[in-house]
Structures are given as structure tokens and as C-alpha cells.
């Protein structure tokens, strides 16, 4: 069945793209395996020169690539442009630092000389999502390629043109044949690839269900995995916070990409002392968001990426309201073409409601009230997810102490949770395991091998 590229703004089918047949898939996997040895043998500086070239291609094609992202996935054009910029940044980062990260590490022992060397694993299968269709790929591929692995991309089925454009970037950068390739295949054939002995590791960003399935298959075949799964990040507001600044950050942190971000601020946990003031500022800011054509710079609320995602979100909101949550703004799909959902504000959210227990992947701000700081911390950690979180306070020392006790992979004080090429990124609990980015990210898909020399 052909892969459909559909514009979320108006539901128009942009193009139908034929998937790879069995012969094409075999050629791609065989080429990646065949290229692995020569690619690994190149000096790090040669490998990273291709990343520098890819960064140049990304910047040169920024306008075109951003437009492809917006038309196929639906995000605001300014956010799409920023995504392309960030991909170039991560290529530059590993081009500059990979040699140091992968350098031999001498260790004192009973040997005449002993050291740890970092060698690539081989072919890495990258199973990537649609919500940041370029960034999620490049933050995986850049360190994996720099480390000397070859990469096969299985992208989400609703962003096939983005997947092909990413491959074009690497081809235009001069990357040797077989070192990076896009596979246009469905989930069933992806599972078969995990079992293929030529593939040595899997990196997946996606749903909990997908993560559990891939981890199970990879474990059966004894393959390394990195999983970046869902999140329900806490955004904790203490009574001494600057509410005007906090609300501005809250709107950006929740409604970026129409709320379709694993690290979006999904649970606003606000102490009672400032809850009413916070809501009085937050509600009009949410109501001011303007839905429209995401290619129009004046639009501030993008559509959701697919109709089924909008329907699932709507049911979560309605069930939470039936259970006692108060809907102060929005609360339903918008009339007209496209897959728009109103910017929504839910108050008095409590345990047992979908808005408390589950990840709401869309433009819905959830407010949970806490009696004091101690209760706010308990609520923040009362989640099966553990990707990121933030705390907002006038006292940075207090904020750091709070952040250290948050059960998540990244805790921010007076800042929106974000990924940064310089810092490791990943979660705990049902948000997955392993790390991307930074020095830890490039070390995930290498063999840290001991050399002992008498």
C-alpha cells in the first residue's frame, strides 16, 4: 500500500509514495552492512567532514525543507525553520567534538599499557516519529555516523517526503553509498529487520507500545537499544515565582508544535497560594492563540498531524471533564477543514483522570493544584513517565534542590525543558532508557573495548 503524504491543514493528499519492495529493502540493508567496515575504518575527522557538509546543505535548503515539514506534518513554519537550524547545529556539534569523545582512554592497571577504545557496532536501525521529523532523525544519526556506524532510517509512515528529503541531504553532502539510507516500509517489516543479524542496534523514538515491542524483539536477539518514549512533564509553579514570566514560558512550553512534543509541559502543578493568579493570567494567553495556515507567520496554533490523533485527544479531554475536571477554555475540535483542536485549559485535574494519568499529545494545558511545595513534588513524581520536568521559583537554590528530587531524565529550573546537542537527553521509567546527544549520546552505539598490553 502506498504511503500517503497528507497536509494536516486542509486534509489534501500531497502525494502517494510507493513503499520499498522486498528486493529494494534487501539492497538497502545489504549496502549498509557492506559499507560498515570501510566507514568505520575512516578517521573520525573524515567522517565528521561529511557532517559539516550536511550542516551546510541543511542551511542552504532551510526554506524548502521547512516548507516540506510544515506541509507534511503541520507545524508552524517558524518552528519548522528552527528545526532545520537545530539539525545543522547537531551536525556541527559532533563534527567539532566527536574526535575527543571517541579518543582512546588510558587506564592504569597491571598491564604495561591498558586503555579503553571506542569502536562502532555496525548497522544502526533508527525508528523515528513524525512530530519532529527532521530533528529526531539527525539527533540520532549525527552521533551514530560520527562514531563510525551506518544508519538505516525507518520513519513514520505519515512523513515519507521528509524521510526522503533527509536522505537527499546526506547524498548531497557526499556521504558514501550505503552509509545512510531511508527505508519506506511498514511496521511489520520493521520487526523483521530487528531480527536481521546484519543490524546490530536499534534506536527508537515513539510510543510506549512501540518501545515495548522493539525492546522485546531486540532483547530476544541480544541487540543494544535506546528508547525515547512518551512523557508527561511536570511544570511546577511555586508561590514566589514571577507569574508573568512563568505564564509566557508555560504557553511556549505547552503549545509548541501544537502540544505534540514528548517534552512539552503537560502537567502544570501549581501551589494553592498562586493558583488563581496563575490561571487568571494563563487563560487569556491560551485564548489568544490563533489557529490557521501554518505557512502563515501570523498563525500561532497549528493543526494536529492526523485526524486519529485529534479524536484520541478529544476523548481524553471529554473523559477528564466527565470525571470532574473544569474546562476553562477550548475543549473540542474546531469546525472546518484540517485537524485543528482548540487550545484548551483544564483545571482541577485529579488522579484517575486521563489528563492526570496519561500523556495528552496536543494543545491541552492541565492544571493540578498542590497545597505546598512538598505536595507539588509528590505530584510531579506521581507519574509512570520520567522524561523531563521544570520548576519555577524566584530562589534558584530552592529550585535546584527541588529539581534534584524530580524523578526524570532532565530537570530545568526557571527554563522550559528542551533538548540541546551539548547535554544528554533521555528518560527513566516508562519514558524509556539510554541517552541521546552530548558525550553520552555518541557512546551509546559503540563498543567500549578494553585493550590490555603486557
TrEMBL record:
Q: Which residues form the signal peptide?
A: none
What Gene3D superfamilies does the record point to? Answer: Aldehyde Dehydrogenase, Chain A, domain 1, Aldehyde Dehydrogenase, Chain A, domain 2
Source species: Thioflavicoccus mobilis 8321
Q: Which UniProt keywords apply?
A: NADP, Oxidoreductase
| GO molecular function (one) | succinate-semialdehyde dehydrogenase (NAD+) activity
- Is Repressor given among the entry's keywords? no
Which Pfam family is one of this chain's hits? Aldedh
Q: Where is the Aldehyde dehydrogenase domain?
A: 3-450
- Similarity comment: Belongs to the aldehyde dehydrogenase family.
Q: What is this protein called?
A: NAD-dependent aldehyde dehydrogenase
Read off the SUPFAM superfamilies from this record: ALDH-like
Q: Does the keyword Transmembrane apply?
A: no
Read off the InterPro entries from this record: Ald_DH/histidinol_DH, Ald_DH_C, Ald_DH_CS_CYS, Ald_DH_N, Aldehyde_DH_dom, ALDH_GabD1-like, GABD/Sad-like
